[in-house]
Description:
Strand content: 5-15%
Strand order of the largest sheet: 1-2-4-3-7-9-8-13-14-12-10-11
Distance between the termini: 53 Å
Shape: globular
Number of helices: 15
Helix content: 25-40%
Number of strands: 14
Largest sheet: 12 strands, mixed
Radius of gyration: 23 Å
Oligomer: single chain
Amino acid sequence: MAIPAPDAARLAALSQHYGFALAEAEIDEFVPAVQATLAASEEVERLHARTAPAVPERESSVPADNPLNAWSVRTRISETTEGPLAGRTVAVKDNIAVAGVPMVNGSATMDGFVPRRDATVVRRLLAAGATITGKSTCEDLCFSGASFTSWPAPVRNPWDRSRNAGGSSSGSAALVANGDVDLAVGGDQGGSVRIPASFTGIVGHKPTYGLVPYTGAFPIEQTIDHLGPMTRTVGDAALMLGVLAGVDGYDSRQPTVLDPVDYLAALRESPAGLRIGVVREGFGTPVSLGGVDDAVRAAVDVLRSAGLTADEVSVPWHTDAMAVWNVIATEGAAYQMVDGNAYGMGTWGQYDPELIAHYAQGRLARGGELSKTVQLVGLSGRYTFELGGGKYYAMARNLSYELRDAYDAALAEYDVLVMPTLPYVARELPSRDISLADYLDTALSMIGNTAPFDVTGHPACSVPAGLVDGLPAGMMIIGKRFDDATVLRVAHAYEQAVGGFPAPAGAGAGVTS
């Protein structure tokens, strides 16, 4: 497609944007020079079209029966009846591409988009025998932890439909907890696998950064993007992680080599003698509910009775970690997810040019419909970027190594660290006329323990620690980077010791372990 040539007025505006201070005569000289560069862009578009796949024909529909608003769209896709996930049904978070199936990422700005390519995790699930039965609703561009910003409707918690299901992988958690699917895939940049897992009483595992390829998922910020399994049992999480993990060659978040690990086999190893560090700073925060802290400490006692040792450990950096995450998740996400139309530039990886173009148009046309959390990212992140030129982001990324080292120092003494996943249980879904302060508090106040490990990349798994006032609370188990197996061993030891995890009343019982 021919690119419209810019005139002198357009170049003058660009000159002002960059501070070039070009005179009118200089701009006139640049007009033909700039126009000459457009031929390369037009040629790249032509070359890309030669190999770009067409949108495949796959049937999908918006479900009429959707009481939790957890389904974004229903489908049924399978490719083989053999493999470790044969016969298992899977919901895929709607920020992850399933070719030929609509993908809105919880946002009006993505309405009408249908991807051409499957995400790597989708290809791996299908190759392992899984049946994908639909896309699960997620928060608007995945930037909220409370399941009420998703377009067009909030996701409800199957334990109490007046309450939120957590976010941003809200639909994935609700469908698993309710027994509507066996397994689900979630994404996690500030806790978005573990938050809804905690609120809905399931298992949510955020893998080590780079263990599972992010290729084909809608990015938020390159350095904190994760995908991971959401299941009813630890065994299923381990089985699923074994399918999802490994280098795909298209994601710069990943190392070049990853040794395969049999996570399911690791669960059969005795946990006796493993050392737990109970992180003092993860308890008793200004927003903590005492019953949640008590439930997690009781869960640690259960692990002690199973033969593990546990001692309190202090990681002072934990109390400062949110400042680091906040800068990365505002300035970094404004630069990449907003101004950079999700993918940004400057890294190796497989891009989705059709998604970028669709979202770029939708963001400008329907930006007023974006959630207030996304608007906060744009306003705050762009302001600090313009003020400091990117120095605050650079400082935060440098500090991330100090933060990682602090957890690594504790993990040199202990096999895993433990703390509450979230400081409280699921809250009631807010009204539409909620104030901005209450909106942001509801959406983000729960992430103090989860978000730091998106910055550092450590694996972290949330398991149900019991019920508090009739609602699930979560215990988070954190391990050494790329030692996801030990995290899952401890989680499994707890699950075995308590005899399994409860489900909400009326949940389907067809999930196998």
